[in-house]
Structures are given as C-alpha cells and as structure tokens.
Design goal:
This protein is an alpha/beta fold. About 35% of the residues lie in helices and about 25% in strands. The strands form two sheets. Strands 8-9-10-7-11-12-13 form a seven-stranded mixed sheet, with helices on one face.
Length: about 325
C-alpha cells in the first residue's frame, strides 16, 4: 500500500513534534505539504522533515485554499492556534481529508459535535492529539483498570501545577484569551483531565468548580479546581495552576480503589500498589513518553484498516465537555 500523505496546518512550537511523529512512522506516512501564515515557520518544518527523509519534497503553501484543494494530501494535522481548530477541521473534512487535531479539538461542545458529525457524513477519520494516553506508564495503568485490579474505584486526582509568567502570555497576543486560547483548564490541564476521565469511567453525574484569575494579566483563569462525580460513583479531583513559583512543580495522576493505589508523576510511575500480584508489576520498562509517535501509528493504522482510532472525535470531546461544564458552574 502507498504511504498516507500528510499536510500540516500551523507550524508553530508544537508542530515540531508532529513532524517528528511523521518521520518516526515513515514506513506508512510521509509529509507532503505545510501551511502557515508565517512562511518562515513553514519553511522550518520543510527543512526539519527533508533533513531526515531522503528524496522528500515538502511543498510550502502560502494560500490556505490551495492547501485545502491539494488532492495529493490524504490527512491534515491541525497544529494551529486553539481557537482555529474547529473551523480548520471542518474545512479539511469538507475537502475530504482525514484530520488529526491538536488539543483541544474545539473551544466549545457545539463545535466539537459539528466536527464529529461531519466526519461521519464524509466517512473520514478524526483523531484528537491526546498522546499521553500512549505513554508506557499510562498504558500500564489502563491495563490494571481493564483487569479490574482496583476493585471499586473510589477517587482519582489530576494535578497540573505549572509556572507560566506574564512574559509567556505576552509572547503571543492570542494566549490567555477566551476566543483563541481558553484558560488554564482548557490549555494546560486538558491532557490530565482526559486521562482522569478515561481511567475513572468517563460518564459524568455532576461537576462543581472554582476558577479565578489571581496574578496573570489574562482574560481567562490562571487557576482552576474541579470536583467531579462520575456516574459509577467515583469522585475526581482536578487542580490546575499556572501560578506556581518559580517553576513547574508537577503533573500527576493518582487513582485510588479498594484494592489498589497508583500515582504517576511527571510521566513516570511513582506508586504502584495492589492487593494481587501480576507478572508485569515489577517488570522494568522504558518509561520514556514517545509523544505523538504512537498516536500517529494508531491513527494511520485506523485509516488503513477502516477502524476507529483510540482517541477519536467522541473521545476527544469528553475532556472539552468536562471543562465547559466547569466553566458554566
């Protein structure tokens, strides 16, 4: 089978990881086009890819519509500013492209639903970039969840305690805005919120929240906390901040059940305790998060085999919906 041909919209900071992921899946994928309103950024990604893949030729687009109308592109990665994700995904689907959307897939539930419905109508695959689901530590935790090792789930917590000073927000005028960025929960905490709901059962009974803007000069919150009651009875606790002094402290996910306790801190297993024992409990493995590479591998396989990717549109919507409900409380 010929390789899937990828294009990228948005060539800012996160796009480097997407280019690396395409390179790392070079047996089944290739990058053929990049678009950004800043041509120099697009040229950087062209050079990044072509320096690693021999005989490649990545086309740089200055015109958005010409990019969309390129029939040589099978799949589009949307790595632009958050507030543009939804419309760009809709544009790509309307041009019969599969889409991989950086988080968040949209800044509201209505737009997320539009993307999902259009994907079904066009018979195109949608993947949302919650790549942390594929990290070795998270995969090991998910295996324990699926095997029922926790017994009754009691509660879980997701903590994202980071530092983003005013200089960070001043680097780009869209950062910290309601229209194009979203706040600490939507931007910095969404990966951890996704993991929490994935482990705890997903369906939500009710949410209470406290959010505020304490010290950052932004439109949105610089701190947010949530208390989530899942329909299975378990409770989720979310704590997110960009006000930690003077640097990032931790990103952690903790799951507590009647027969097990697991804490994953900064991508590595910190605590692993269960009533029972399994062969894989003490096996040492590389805890390096391979980032977007396995996410791309799964998405490429889903397109080839005509199945749903692990993080499809419906899955990508779940964290957005939780955050929007917290904002509405």
């Amino acid at each position: 089978m010929s390789k899937l041909k990828f294009g990228i919209i948005g060539c800012g900071r996160i796009s480097k990881r997407h280019v690396d992921a395409i390179i790392n899946n070079k047996d089944k994928a290739e990058l053929v086009g990049v678009y950004d309103i800043v041509e120099e950024l697009a040229m950087d990604k062209k050079k990044q890819y072509e320096s690693k893949i021999e005989d490649s030729n990545v086309k740089v687009y200055k015109d958005y519509n010409k990019f969309l109308n390129d029939e040589n592109i099978d799949v589009v990665t949307i790595a632009s500013i958050s507030g543009y994700h939804a419309q760009q995904a809709i544009d790509c689907l309307n041009h019969n492209k599969h889409v991989l959307i950086e988080k968040p897939m949209a800044l509201n539930i209505e737009d997320a639903d539009k993307i999902i419905e259009l994907g079904k109508k066009k018979n195109k695959k949608i993947c949302v970039s919650h790549q942390n689901r594929f990290s070795p530590a998270i995969q090991k935790l998910r295996q324990a969840i699926d095997e029922g090792r926790f017994g009754k789930l009691i509660h879980g917590s997701a903590r994202t305690l980071w530092a983003r000073d005013n200089d960070y927000y001043k680097q780009a005028s869209w950062r910290g805005t309601k229209k194009l960025d979203g706040g600490t929960l939507m931007n910095q905490c969404i990966h951890n919120i996704d993991l929490l709901q994935w482990m705890m059962g997903g369906e939500i009974e009710r949410i209470s929240s406290e959010i505020d803007t304490f010290i950052r000069d932004i439109e949105t919150e610089d701190f947010g906390a949530m208390l989530i009651r899942f329909k299975n009875g378990a409770i989720g606790v979310v704590e997110g901040s960009v006000c930690v002094y003077p640097r990032n402290l931790e990103e952690s996910l903790s799951i507590f059940g009647e027969k097990g306790t697991v804490v994953i801190k900064n991508g590595k297993i910190d605590t692993w305790r269960f009533e029972d024992r399994r062969d894989y409990d003490n096996i040492e493995f590389d805890e390096t998060n391979l980032g977007h590479t396995p996410l791309y591998g799964d998405f490429i396989d889903a397109i080839i085999k005509n199945r749903e990717p692990l993080v499809n549109g419906e899955e990508g919507k779940k964290a957005v919906e939780i955050i929007m409900r917290a904002y509405e409380v």
